[in-house]
Amino acid sequence: MHTLNSSKIEITTFFLIGIPGLEHVHVWISAPICLMYLVAILGNCTILFVIRTEPSLHAPMYYFLSMLAVSDLGLSLSSLPTMLRIFVFNATGISPNACFAQEFFIHGFTDMESSVLLVMSFDRFLAIRNPLRYSSILTNARVAKMGLVFLVKSVLLVLPFPFTLKKLTYCRKSLLSHSYCLHQDVMKLACSDNTVNFFYGFFVALCMMTDSAFIAVSYIFILKTVMGIGSHKERLKALNTCVSHICAVLIFYVPIIALASMHRFGKHKSPVAMILIADIFLLVPPLMNPIVYCVKTRQIREKVWGKLGLK
Fold it and tell me: Which SUPFAM superfamilies does this UniProt record tie to the protein (predicted)?
């Protein structure tokens, strides 16, 4: 710490938190956490490798799945350092600059995943609504441009976060509420005016909620299109192509909505429950998405088994 004036001392180290009351078993909790990270990283790398090496998977749906895997890898690698330091080594301290960098990457990859899930819902609608024109509308060049737009949009959207946080003064509180740094968590520690941070953070959250609203609208149109199909078997076949994406959407958005609801409406919210939900938000989607797509997508499953030498 160093002195700002005679009455204030600036904080030079933030402290993250594991699971309150279970500090003595953190080292045991670290075992399943490390296993989840390992499976998530291997699973998403496998998805990327299989799609990259199999010409039959060079199609828009699988390119979007690759983008989802990249987002999941980014989320895992962004939170991995602090989670391991807390649960394995019981080291909770983090410098402000490292904290600002971490929250930039976490929010950036979160927004990118939200955008990818949105365009995947449009992809499913287009595949069901206009299957004959699907390939001509979603060309490889257009998919590549979409991926670049998502990346640039996510970077620009969260780029102000570390700079606006760096301008704040931290002089009284230093304990954060999670095992990793989040914008809304860090700004609450400031003893200077954080109005700009509050409203810009609200704007970014609104952008993500807009993505979820458009996903819901997409599925309304998908259901309307499916109900217009005469054959019951064809209706089920069309809906079955959406199951993996619906699971990915639920896995991603349910923890976010639950956490936001607890912050907003939970009068007697449990800190432990909030920490667990926040950890689930970063641990479960990267872990489950590759599993869901391998189980529910026959083409991916067959190619993965083929790479492993299994039938």
Answer: Family A G protein-coupled receptor-like
DSSP code at position 23: G
Nearest in space to 100 (alpha carbons), one of 34, 36, 160: 160
Strands 93-94 and 9-10: unpaired
Residue 227, pLDDT score: 86
pLDDT surpassing 70 at residue 267:
no
What is the rounded distance in angstroms from the CA atom of residue 161 to the CA atom of residue 242?
35
Q: What's the pTM value of the predicted model, to 2 decimals?
A: 0.90
- Amino acid identity of residue 105, one-letter, is F
Q: Quick check: 270 pLDDT over 60? A: yes
Q: List, as one string, the DSSP characters of 35-98.
A: HHHHHHHHHHHHHHHHHHH-GGG-SHHHHHHHHHHHHHHHHHHHHHHHHHHHHHH---EE-HHH
Rounded CA-CA distance 16/281 in Å is 17
Average pLDDT taken over every residue of the chain? 87
